[in-house]
């Protein structure tokens, strides 16, 4: 595109005087008003003028942004007058690459004034916009209308649901509200266009501009119309997802980058029976091929995480069993992470999963910890033991963290306790491995003795190293909170002797501020009083977390089991 065409397009049909007027308004909006009344009078005058100029300024690139700012400040009457003008040429405005932004802002602003009143004017505006969109059904999948369709769906559904979209931040303007039954027919009609149950599905979910909206529709149906979502998922699985195969005999929608995002949402909302069919007909038969491809690997992870029954978890476990060692590193390590997350929801399967993992990687868990520090190229050595690992692995760190969610944490506790000084420092300096300490010290399944033993690693010998390291300083903060008062005094004493080195480091200065090191060096009594107060606060916080943790555990174990009936005491006569 030439610069002349771009300039003409930017100027639109607005006159220079009109453009200058709205630019001056932008400057006044940036300045502060003396009071709210003055601001309201100013906006009232501007919106009176905007009613005459909107057809000009909404298409202009510079003034369109000013219109958006004004719409975000509009009251009910001002917004309603603008919406009436927009709805007259709704189908033309939503396909314009500049004007569509103002329309989107106006739709989101309507959500702030939608209420349960029968004669709510904004419910009528949104309903008219939905009907206008349905009359031009081809615009629903138009590349320039995708964000307008998304905004309209969100306002009608009364909720914002995260999807993979680079403009997810736009829906921060949305105010969630009660769902209105008036919108049901329009939402279902739009969902049938965006989620066809025939083989044309792949033409929607693999195209970037419609895929994000299709994902939102699926989540919205699951939230607002669960029975409709259940039936639609069955039809999609039967007719849509498995209708197109690639050269390897795999469903094309699973191996496509954009389509795989839709599949991740799809498995989240699947009910028990369709999930079983997906595992039986797609995931398990093609498991080796799917986990090798980056996009389909994410779909397999989502399927493992969202299994609906112990039988489905066992099927996945049987496929992964015997491969734990080979999947400890790289992309496949997240398959183990998702399996562990899923196993937490099914207590009866936890012991078998943990035993199989121990059998393959060792009873003490040292291999997983070392993988989180260093690692890859590893093979079985001549003596049958795995060779030492040499590069960082995020997956292995996540495996160690997820194992702390199991009731039996001896596996990881022994590995942390057996770390040498060099291994401890390497783990604390590791970008991913250091997260193990955060999870370890905050886990409600780890006993206090193990936490105290881990915290005692922060001693006069290691404190300087940790405090002056960008990543190690976070481990310092985590361990410091669990030290006893005498241990904290000894650490502070060691740091005070090397205060020049501490203050020369940026992370060291932050640590010094957190532990009040200057107060320790100059006013010891005040530091002692501060330390005692901090310990009291920590104990209260730990007690509260322990109570909450017990309640969560009780809820998890009692989920699905009927509450025991209370015996009625007979009244004594």
Which secondary-structure class do the elements indicate? mainly alpha
Mean pLDDT: 81
Total beta strand runs:
0
User: Per DSSP, what share of the residues sits in E-state strands of 2 or more residues?
Assistant: under 5%
**What Rg is obtained from the alpha carbons, in whole angstroms?**
30 Å
Helix content: 55-70%
Q: Report the major sheet.
A: none
Number of helices: 34
Low-confidence stretches: 1-11, 164-169, 374-392, 556-571
Shape: flat
Our measurement of the CA-to-CA distance between the termini, rounded to an integer number of angstroms, reads: 97 Å
Description:
The chain is mainly alpha-helical and 573 residues long. 66% of the residues lie in helices and 0% in strands. The protein has helices at residues 3-11, 16-30, 36-57, 61-73, 76-88, 90-93, 99-110, 121-135, 146-157, 184-194, 202-205, 208-224, 226-240, 252-255, 257-269, 272-283, 287-292, 294-305, 310-320, 333-344, 347-361, 366-373, 394-403, 410-417, 421-429, 435-442, 448-455, 463-467, 472-480, 485-497, 499-504, 506-514, 517-522, 524-558. The chain is flat and about 75 Å long. It starts with a helix and ends in a 15-residue tail after the last helix. Residues 1-11, 164-169, 374-392 and 556-571 have low confidence and may be disordered.
